[in-house]
Amino acid sequence: MSAPKRFRNPILPGMNPDPSICRVGGDFYLVTSTFEWFPGLPVFHSRDLVHWRQLGHVLDRPSQLYLDGIRPSAGLYAPTIRHHDGTFYVVCTLVDGLGHFVVTATDPAGPWSEPTWLEGKGIDPSLFFDDDGRVWFTETRPKTTGELNDECQILLREFDTAALRTTGPEHVIWEGAVRQAIWPEAPHLYKVDGRYVLVTAEGGTFHDHAVVVARSDAVTGPYEGNPRNPVLTHRHLGRDHPIVGTGHADLVDTPDGEWWMVLLAWRPYGGYYCNLGRETFLTPVRWEDGWPVAGPVEAVHAAPSLPEHRWPAAPACDHFDAPDLAPYWNMLRTPREQWWSLTDRPGHLRLRLRRHTLADLANPSFVGRRQQHMDFAAYAAMEFTPEHEGDQAGLALVLNHEFHVVLASTAQGLRLVRREQGRDTVLAEHTSVPHRLWLGFEAHGQEYQARFATRPGAWEPLGEPFDGRFLNTQTAGGFTGVYVGMFASGPAPERFADFDWFEYSPLDGEP
């Protein structure tokens, strides 16, 4: 007899927080938060809950997403994806914008509609399609002070799918399982065996995060809390546990009747730090006395009893020979002009210099992808000759505008610069830099090493390894993770840097 199949958590490594999932027949679709990154809200597809491919993004057009000047971690919060009667719905919140919105599509790969803005001043909206034909909208809203980090409430209103708006009276259905609980959030409703089950999170999204459950015989309540709440948390396991901060969950059933939970958590390393951000994990759920029993969330677990369905593995190296950027590439905030090209010089990514730098709350000329592994190497080949003071292009590790590292060809030579709390420090320099240059970052845990080469394969270190523990939200605040990618900036927009290829690979056997 063959050994039972097992899977490894997280199922979506790197910054993929606030997962929401739905099933259509034998297909599963999942979305996650993206905050200030564009395109917004990646859409993933799976047939076995373990192997996922990215179909695209929900918000992939500038007209859909106003991230101009948005603060770090103040953009898109906590989407929910649902499917009903041939239509996919995503509700989400643009926190430093107009608030809640809904978009729809008949194909999860898109195109998705322009957003319809909804009433409400909270976060974490969700939709529930009842079996009587009625649809309900839930959200988290501050209870008294207007501050989301104070006591909050879960509110319920009816939702009109024809008009795409909330309607009818508000119902306060939950205020938390723990007295004076902070951030009761992420409300999702389900109907199981005739009862309405409310799954929410509380305790904040750091170490004390938790999943709690309530239920009712009527959708509008009253809801009784599970006497065993929280039904899932790792806060009692200590900060040295390999998986912490478990919460913000969504449930899904399989065609065979198994139940599973997707949720966020993060993996501390190098002490109580994590540069990867909050990631998407999977854990089984069973039901006892009408209550869900979940977890604990393990690094390796028995797989769902679904036929294994692997997708073709993505190449480690992008040669930029496709007509469009691969879906794993992102930009900071909404691009309002076309400063990148894959066609000006076929087989290259051309980045035009822009006056905005990575230190600005703007849309700099930067194309990056998530750091997804504790140990990784990222390399690129670049052609660029700086001519003016301020011209620079190269590779960058980016958490936000005040916390990042650049490895840049400049008019003064090759420079490695750390920006921490808005202050720049030159870590290393090399004065002689040719037009064609190879650049790289290599990480082993929190130790990062910058590398360069002036001819193929002749790699040299630039400076000593540096401590990367400032590139995390425990230090910098917010809810994101590190991106690694290519950038260009300078005063002459007619000038550009060409990147021949970019390669990202995990190291030391990390999957």
TrEMBL record:
The keyword Transmembrane does not apply. Residues 317-505 form the Beta-xylosidase C-terminal Concanavalin A-like domain. It holds the Pfam family Glyco_hydro_43. CDD domains: GH43_XynB-like. GO terms for molecular function: hydrolase activity. SUPFAM superfamilies: Arabinanase/levansucrase/invertase, Concanavalin A-like lectins/glucanases. Keywords: Glycosidase, Hydrolase. PANTHER family: BETA-XYLOSIDASE (PTHR42812), BETA-XYLOSIDASE-RELATED (PTHR42812:SF12). Belongs to the glycosyl hydrolase 43 family. This is Glycoside hydrolase family 43 protein. It comes from Actinomadura miaoliensis.
